Amino acid sequence: MKTKKICDLYISFFKIGGLTFGGGLAMLPMLQREVVKKHQWCTEEELLDIYAIGQCTPGIIAVNTATYVGYQQAGFLGSVAGTLGMVSPSLIIICLVASILQNFIHMPAVLHALAGIRIVVCALMLNTVFTMAKKGIIDKLGALVFVTAFLLACFTPVPTALVIVLAGLTGIIAKHFERRRSA
Amino acid sequence: MIYLILAYEFFKIGLFSIGGGMATLPFLMDLTNKYDWFTVSELTNMVAISESTPGPVGINMATYAGYNAAGVLGAIVATLALTAPAWIIIILIAKFLENFSENKNVKAAFYGIRPAVAALIGYAVWELLKIALVSAAEGKLQVNMVNAIVCVAAFALLQIKKLGKLHPLAWIAAGACIGVVLKM
């Protein structure tokens, strides 16, 4: 019975990982179909809660969701099955694409296409940064953190991880003082 | 032992990249300075391919980076190492903490982290832009005007609601066509 559940978890998350493009929010509709409707592993509300946890823990949101659902359904082995199911399609597809691309990368047409793609990707990413900044910067302190982090990344060898930790601490300290002042 | 180094680096990325797949980009950028696994320009290709294949973008990029560094085994090591820290943390949360995302300190930390993540990704994109737009001709660095115009035009078009909602795959395909037609 438990073995079947673990197989189900692996297969379900394999499907979700293999059929959705983009991860993150793009994955929610597929998650709803497989996890809520088909297997009834959790309710719609629980899924959104799990998603919120996935968003505020380190790592990839979609994978975190798979780990959490897997753990709730079948403990330790369930979390392994969910996680591996989610990353397996990526491993297969990316390795295939990368090995195929290596054989074609020297053709002029492929080089031109990649050059064009690189520019569009820059525009797409720039757009992502703007959206994230708009959502993430809600007050003056947020703007200050944004500018400081950017300058640290540009001009100092401060490790990226340290910038994240410092930003988190800044948030905690700022909110602490805010609470004290209003109390 | 390249596999050990890969495991260490990607474990670290998994532990500190908060806020989705693109948050791993600044860390991957760091790797281009530290190791010769891939160049910044290859990194841009990796982003494009990761966005146009199924699966979470962060996982796809880690798989690709691992593959470039040390083949299929490298891909597996990088991907599993990336997911390991979150896996441990999620199990701890599932076991011990209820209402984790409602905790006031967690919320306060994210209030600070979100703008920083946006800034770090912004810096990574700036580095990618330099590679995509600046070319070295006769030993002098100069901005490639055609590339710059295409980039600005694409960004402007992305601000149109309907076009911005198109799947990245459509944009990437369009980029490939433009690249071939203009012989970029």
Could you explain the architecture of this structure?
- The complex is a heterodimer of chains A (about 180) and B (about 180).
- With about 180 residues, chain A is mainly alpha-helical.
- In chain A, about 85% of the residues lie in helices and about 0% in strands.
- Chain A has helices spanning about 1-20, 30-40, 45-55, 60-105, 110-135, 140-155, 160-180.
- In chain A, about 45% of the residues are buried.
- Chain B has about 180 residues and is mostly helical.
- Chain B has helices at about 1-15, 25-35, 40-50, 55-95, 105-135, 145-160, 160-165, 170-180, and strands at about 135, 140-145.
- Classes of the chains: A mainly alpha (about 180), B mainly alpha (about 180).
- Chains A and B meet through helix 1, helix 3, helix 4, helix 5 and helix 6 of A and helix 1, helix 2, helix 3, helix 4 and helix 5 of B.
Features:
heterodimer, A: 183 residues, mainly alpha, 7 helices, 84% helix, 0% strand, B: 184 residues, two-stranded antiparallel ribbon, 8 helices, 4% strand
In short:
The complex is a heterodimer of chains A (183) and B (184). By secondary structure, chain A is mostly helical. Chain A contains seven helices and no strands.
Topology:
The complex is a heterodimer of chains A (183) and B (184).
Chain A (H helix, E strand, L loop, with lengths): L1 H18 L8 H11 L5 H12 L5 H44 L3 H29 L3 H16 L4 H23 L1
Chain B lengths: L1 H15 L8 H10 L5 H12 L5 H40 L7 H30 E4 L2 E4 L1 H14 L2 H4 L3 H14 L3
**Helix and strand pattern of chain B:** HHHHHEEHHH
Task: Provide the β-strand percentage band of chain A.
Answer: under 5%
Q: What series of H and E elements makes up the topology of chain A?
A: HHHHHHH
Largest interface: A-B, 95 and 106 residues
The number of E-state strands of chain B comes to 2
| Structural Rg of chain A | 21 Å
What class, by secondary structure content of chain B? Answer: mainly alpha
**What radius of gyration of chain B results from the CA coordinates?**
19 Å
Question: How would you write the strand order of the largest sheet of chain B?
Answer: 1-2
Overall form of chain B: globular
Oligomer: heterodimer
Q: What ranges of chain A have pLDDT less than 50 throughout 5 or more consecutive residues?
A: none
Overall 3D geometry of chain A?
flat
Class computed from helices, strands and strand pairing of chain A: mainly alpha
Q: Distance between termini of chain A? A: 54 Å
Average per-residue pLDDT of chain B, rounded, comes to: 87
Largest sheet geometry of chain B: 2 strands, antiparallel
